[in-house]
User: Which sequence fits this backbone?
């Protein structure tokens, strides 16, 4: 371990730093806790007092808002659309990015370095630049307003980062390990699935979390490329605010559900996420 890594580890393990991190974490959770409590209060209580008054009057808590949410077809349909968009967009980016990352790291083909530079260059292309041209293209081929069109857009803009991240991770795998597998008769596909992918668990988890959170929380792309039948939860909540404004009994539980699912995904894979981010940082 390097001197800088040892110093950082000692500082993180100190009691004062731990207390500070716990306090920061609690402050970070305050908006989420407030939204949860608001989603469990009636509209009358929400308009009469702040969410923190529930600690002195716990009788305010009720699940009526969630019952109304389940009866709201626009919200429930949009939640299903969000899953239909996010899961395929995440899986495709991880799978295709892993294949391309392995090819750029360990396979020889003409112009490999130049192609990789082109992929890295795509990282600087902002999403806003492509919205109108791709919207016109999707309109001509019949994909505009469909869930599949939104998935393709997210996959296209997620792949450059995926290829860049996974290629750098795969390049750190010892060459001797791959050569030994080739001597045992392993082809490229078997080498990829049986040797490389098991070693890439932390990097894959980090990429999947990044992609999942980006797609799940996206509203700009969904606002442009979806219609009433394919809109995700972010657009549905924005539409509810614009149309009704005062239906907080539906907006609060809907917003909490849209927030708690990515939080659950992050905390479920936080160990792999930290391992993937720190991979190669400390020797």
Assistant:
């Amino acid at each position: 371990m390097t001197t800088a890594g040892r110093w950082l580890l000692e500082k993180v393990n100190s009691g004062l730093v731990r207390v500070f991190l716990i306090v920061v974490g609690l402050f970070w959770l305050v908006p989420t806790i407030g939204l949860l409590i608001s989603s469990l209060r009636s509209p009358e209580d929400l308009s009469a007092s702040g969410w923190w008054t529930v600690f002195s009057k716990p009788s305010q808590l009720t699940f009526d808002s969630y019952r109304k949410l389940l009866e709201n077809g626009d919200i429930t349909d949009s939640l299903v659309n969000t899953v239909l968009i996010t899961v395929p967009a995440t899986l495709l980016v991880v799978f295709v990015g892993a294949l391309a990352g392995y090819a750029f790291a360990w396979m020889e083909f003409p112009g490999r370095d130049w192609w990789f530079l082109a992929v890295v260059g795509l990282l600087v292309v902002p999403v806003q630049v492509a919205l109108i041209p791709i919207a016109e293209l999707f309109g001509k081929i019949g994909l505009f307003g469909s869930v599949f069109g939104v998935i393709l857009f997210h996959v296209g803009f997620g792949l450059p980062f995926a290829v860049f991240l996974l290629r750098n991770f795969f390049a750190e795998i010892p060459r001797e390990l791959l050569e030994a597998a080739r001597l045992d008769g392993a082809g490229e596909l078997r080498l990829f699935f049986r040797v490389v992918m098991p070693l890439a668990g932390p990097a894959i988890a980090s990429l999947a979390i990044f992609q999942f959170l980006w797609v799940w929380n996206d509203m700009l792309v969904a606002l442009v490329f979806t219609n009433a039948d394919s809109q995700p939860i972010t657009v549905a909540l924005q539409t509810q605010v614009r149309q009704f404004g005062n239906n907080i009994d539906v907006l609060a539980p809907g917003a909490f559900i849209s927030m708690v699912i990515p939080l659950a995904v992050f905390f479920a894979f936080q160990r792999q996420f930290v391992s993937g981010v720190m991979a190669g940082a400390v020797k």
In short: The mean pLDDT is 82. The longest helix spans residues 73-106. DSSP finds 15 helices and no strands in the chain.
